[in-house]
């Protein structure tokens, strides 16, 4: 599994993370209150990991940040400015997202997956887009797979292509929704290494994960969510060593 | 033995076939192909429109599409062709003169579009929601995401069903004879039937049937080929090779891939 630490100097020019915040975000699906007032502050160029049991609202929170879901109440701020009145399509070009099941476009080659947004949304020429795709695929160690369909890649390779696809849009924030949960154990490391590299290059990252080791070693901040609220948050060492609530203690005893 | 001879003369009289052949070839075949092809094209375009409207979040788009589909899928083809071909003929007479083809094609297109719309709809619906979500997360609007990512995948999945619909259309085109055809407007069926009626011998109709098979049987093979290609197409352009530890292909091994590049 290739890692990409050697490309850091060249790529860092493209990484310019900005701060992300949410204020008192509420969302209900019918009578189901999924988010009940979530406050979140991820300073620029830092990584925050969101942990918690399934159904706690972690993935929903990510989708509020890039407005794939609109909050019933509350605010979302990028770089200190509310984005709820922005054009959502324009906002999503500033916020990259990586999904649990990769969601690569199976009918397009790896390269075309990366270039689609560049040519159609960023207005790059086909050649410029291909060049930028090459660069970002190189970063995740998969430039040699550019002409292959995603279906022929391993899960780990697909997820790294998905990361390259998001990064090629040069986002200011990256959202990861359980990016390694669908991977075979031996493929998890490569994806986490790619994510850790990105964090060290100064991307602002909001990471929903079950990988406690990653949360501990990469994140500056860990948030524990349960029943639509942030129950506890803080520096990883503090959260993992001295959990302040029973709920977090119980959760940690189950996952660690 | 006697019965066999009678049967042979009734259905496979070579002289009767030979007599009907020029008309079938010069008039019937082009007319049948014209009817089937134009209504296939119009039906596919209308069908896609119906599918997209039927999947819309807007009720005022979804509703008319559903009603349209229910009507033209639910009516017997003969009823639709007669209602449109005869019912609208006063209008047609003023626009393009006494030619039943435009209205016949319209009726066939409407029937085909109802079926094709349902085929497209099921294909588009079968595409995982994550595909549209990923497209939107990149910054595409919902319509662009549908057009660039979801619909192309959905259509690929239903190509075999689509070709089946084209086969049905070739056969249904014979029903335009209801509308009354001039000698030069007759399709394969009508020519075969006329010859059979005039001679009291079914051989010309058998020959017309053979012409239909000549069109439809290759199409069924197209279905199978398309189906096969879609089934293992994803392997075919990047099959795992024993000498490649990564289980994929190098660019030089995938001649098809560049052609699939996004425009």
Q: What's the domain count of chain B?
A: 1
Tally of alpha and pi helices of chain A: 10
So what's the overall shape of chain A? globular
Q: End-to-end span of chain B in angstroms?
A: 67 Å
What value does the average pLDDT of chain B take? 86
Q: What percent of the residues of chain A sit in helical stretches (DSSP H or I)?
A: 25-40%
Structural class of chain B: mainly alpha
| Count of separate DSSP helical elements of chain B | 11
| Shape-level CATH architecture of chain B | Orthogonal Bundle
Q: Mind summarizing the main beta sheet of chain A?
A: 6 strands, mixed
CATH fold annotation of the domain at 10-104 and 174-255 in chain A:
Rossmann fold
Judging by the overall fold, what is the CATH architecture of the domain at 10-104 and 174-255 in chain A? 3-Layer(aba) Sandwich
Main interface by residue count: A-B, 42 and 36 residues
Helix fraction bin of chain B: over 70%
Overall body shape of chain B: elongated
Number of strands of chain B: 0
Q: Radius of gyration of chain B, Cα only, in angstroms?
A: 24 Å
The protein's oligomeric status is: heterodimer
GO molecular function (chain A): ABC-type amino acid transporter activity; ATP binding; ATP hydrolysis activity
Domain ABC transporter (chain A): 20-252
Protein name (chain A): ABC transporter ATP-binding protein
Pfam families (chain A): ABC_tran (PF00005)
What does this structure look like?
Chain B: The chain crosses the membrane at residues 33-55, 67-88, 204-226. By secondary structure, chain A is of the alpha/beta class. Chain A has ten helices and ten strands. Chain A has a domain at 10-104 and 174-255: P-loop containing nucleotide triphosphate hydrolases (Rossmann fold, 3-Layer(aba) Sandwich). Chain A has helices at residues 8-11, 58-65, 88-94, 110-120, 126-139, 155-168, 185-200, 212-218, 236-241, 246-255, and strands spanning 20-29, 32-42, 47-51, 73-78, 81-82, 95-98, 173-177, 204-208, 221-226, 229-234. In chain A, the strands form two sheets. In chain A, strands 6-7-8-3-9-10 form a six-stranded mixed β-sheet, sandwiched between helices. In chain A, strands 2-1-4-5 form a four-stranded antiparallel β-sheet, covered by helices on one side. Chain B has a single domain (2-235), classed as MetI-like fold, CATH 1.10.3720.10. Chain B is an all-alpha fold and 263 residues long. Chain B has eleven helices and no strands. Helix content of chain B is 75%, strand content 0%. In chain B, helix 9 (159-172) runs antiparallel to helix 11 (203-236). Classes of the chains: A alpha/beta (256), B mainly alpha (263). Chain A binds chain B through residues 66, 68, 89-90, 92-93, 95-97, 99, 101, 103-109, 111-112, 115-117, 119-121, 126, 144-149, 151-154, 157, 162, 165-166, 169, and chain B through 128, 130-131, 133-141, 144, 148-149, 152-153, 156, 234-235, 237-240, 246-251, 254, 257-258, 260-262.
């Amino acid at each position: 599994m290739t890692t990409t630490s050697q490309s850091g100097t060249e790529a860092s020019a493209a990484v310019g993370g900005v701060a992300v915040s949410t204020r008192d975000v509420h969302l209900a699906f019918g009578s189901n209150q999924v988010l009940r007032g979530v406050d979140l502050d991820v300073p620029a160029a830092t990584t925050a990991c969101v942990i918690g049991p399934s159904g706690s609202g972690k993935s929903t929170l990510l989708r509020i940040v890039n407005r794939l879901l609109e909050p019933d109440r509350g605010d979302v701020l990028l770089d200190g400015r509310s984005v709820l009145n922005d054009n959502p399509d324009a906002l999503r070009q500033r916020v990259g997202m990586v999904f649990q099941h990769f969601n690569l476009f199976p009918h397009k080659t790896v390269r075309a997956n990366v270039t689609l947004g560049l040519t159609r949304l960023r207005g790059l020429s086909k050649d410029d887009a291909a060049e930028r795709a090459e660069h970002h695929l190189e970063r995740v160690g998969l430039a040699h797979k550019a002409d292959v369909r995603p279906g022929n890649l391993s899960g780990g390779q697909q997820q790294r292509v998905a990361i390259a696809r998001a990064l090629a849009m040069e986002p200011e924030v990256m959202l990861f929704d359980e990016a390694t949960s669908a991977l075979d154990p031996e493929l998890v490391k490569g994806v986490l290494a790619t994510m850790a590299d990105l964090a060290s290059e100064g991307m602002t990252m909001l990471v929903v994960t079950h990988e406690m080791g990653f949360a501990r070693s990469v994140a500056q901040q860990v948030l524990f969510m349960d029943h639509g609220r942030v129950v506890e948050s803080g520096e990883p060492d503090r959260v993992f060593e001295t959990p302040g609530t029973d709920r977090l203690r119980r959760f940690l005893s189950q996952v660690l | 033995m006697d019965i066999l001879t009678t049967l042979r003369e009734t259905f496979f009289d070579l002289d009767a076939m030979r007599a009907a052949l020029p008309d079938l070839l010069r008039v019937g075949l082009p007319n049948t192909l014209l009817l089937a092809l134009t209504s296939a094209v119009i039906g596919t375009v209308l069908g896609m429109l119906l599918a997209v409207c039927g999947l819309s979040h807007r009720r005022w788009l979804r509703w008319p599409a559903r009603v349209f589909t229910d009507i033209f899928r639910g009516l017997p083809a003969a009823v639709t062709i007669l209602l449109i071909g005869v019912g609208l003929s006063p209008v047609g007479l003023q626009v393009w003169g006494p030619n039943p083809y435009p209205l016949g094609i319209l009726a066939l297109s409407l029937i085909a579009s109802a079926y094709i719309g349902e085929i497209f709809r099921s294909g588009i619906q079968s595409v995982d929601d994550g595909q549209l979500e990923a497209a939107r997360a990149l910054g595409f609007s919902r319509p662009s995401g549908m057009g660039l990512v979801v619909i192309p995948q959905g259509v690929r999945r239903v190509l075999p069903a689509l070709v089946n619909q084209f086969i049905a259309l070739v056969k249904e085109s014979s029903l335009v004879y209801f509308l009354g055809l001039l000698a030069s407007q007759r399709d394969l069926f009508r020519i075969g039937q006329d010859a059979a009626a005039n001679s009291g011998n079914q051989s010309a109709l058998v020959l017309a049937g053979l012409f239909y098979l000549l069109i439809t049987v290759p199409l069924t093979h197209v279905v199978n080929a398309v189906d096969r290609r879609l089934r293992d197409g994803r392997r075919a352009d990047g099959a795992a090779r024993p000498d490649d530890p990564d289980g994929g292909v190098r660019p030089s091994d995938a001649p098809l891939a560049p052609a699939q590049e996004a425009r």
